[in-house]
Amino acid sequence: MVNHMSTSARRPGTRFDRSHTDDLMAFLSASPSPYHAVANAAARLEKAGFRQVAETDQWDGAAGGRYVLRGGAIVAWYVPEGAPAHTPFRIVGAHTDSPNLRVKPLPDSGAYGWRQVAVEVYGGTLLNTWLDRDLGLAGRITLRDGSIRLVTVDRPLLRVPQLAVHLDRSVNTDGLKLDRQRHMQPIWGLGDALEGDLMRFVADEVDVEAADIMGWDLMPHPVEPPAYLGRDRELVAGPRMDNLLSVHAATAALASVVTTAGGDLPYIPVLAAFDHEENGSQSDTGADGPLLGSVLERSVLARGGSYEDRSRAFAGTVCLSSDTGHAVHPNYAERHDPTHQPRANGGPILKVNVNMRYATDGAGRAVFVDVCERAGVPWQTFVSNNAMPCGTTIGPITAARHGITTVDIGVAILSMHSARELCGADDPFHLANALTAFLEG
């Protein structure tokens, strides 16, 4: 296992000043919803020379960087000068969504003099981590004219109050039991529930007429900012690391590669960040949808390619599916495999499951090891305890749907699916370096 770092100036960030991790924390704070995340990723790619293309327009085959936005998903790619139509792709896959609470279609609720917002639980969130936490509100609204506006209320607005211990004497012995319907509705004021109250508030926040709001995709988010943690500040705590940590690293890597390598790239580097991974990826913006395949095929065809060229390109394509994984928990070490125990700041993890909950195989392992060795970063392996079910991510979906070689990797964290997660402060930089080496080919 390689244990040294690359110090090349072309890599994003540095080990010593942790500028990459500082930038990650800024990205997390600015991305309280998937829609914000893809907008921020797009803005960073624009600075590297990428331009947005509409799926409804005809695409040309000119060299350069382009990206497509669809809801909470982004696919970005860079075509080197003179790249043949059959040029393979190098894809970094990730997802933009995180387990949380989502506002219901009829949001105005309340009882006993408390005004509340009706929410639905999204994904496999740790419910207790949302209790007694100051929450803002973010997402998007759709207006009468079809336009979309981002919503960001980044101040204490909502709170899901926990029942006092005096009224639940067994909570510390029998454990906290939460009913997803009855116990997770946040309060946001006093008085009686008024129909249309929340949307009137949102309309004022974004300076539109409430009557023009025709639809919304809104979600509470913790307003406490990310922070370094520990005696030596070697840890980072923050929201939505699963999986904006990977989205941020992949965006930085893609921008770095096209800025430094440009037309000399032997592959077409791609960032594919999907929505809805936390509930199965089955949507038009999820990894199990047609978005990635459509973009890749259109890129081949725009360069004058045929179905044969498409097949050749896909056959030579490799995807690194980057998602967070489990660091060994010091208080629950028995829940982990005794011989595979990833640690914080130990470098990115190779995720393996022979039942294909992860897509990695031996050939994929060789790709990952080569990438880490060329980048000069340490790496680790994650395997689940045989006695416990293994999670999954977009890797197996991507491999099966598109028939491309896929390797599941990520960063080891604690408190996965909590409202606030924890990772090593150096690991985001390690991951970005590995992804840069991968996209360079």
Note the main attributes of this structure:
9-stranded mixed sheet; 5-stranded mixed sheet; single chain; globular; Aminopeptidase; alpha/beta; 441 residues; disordered N terminus; Aminopeptidase i, Domain 2; 20 strands; 10 helices
Description:
This protein has 441 residues and is of the alpha/beta class. The chain has helices spanning 19-30, 34-47, 171-174, 197-206, 241-260, 291-302, 307-315, 362-375, 394-402, 427-440; strands spanning 51-52, 64-70, 73-79, 89-95, 100-111, 114-122, 135-143, 148-158, 187-190, 213-222, 227-229, 235-238, 268-274, 318-322, 325-326, 349-351, 380-382, 405-410, 412-414, 421-424. The strands form four sheets. It has a nine-stranded mixed β-sheet, sandwiched between helices. The chain is globular and about 70 Å long. It starts with 18 loop residues before the first helix and ends with a helix.
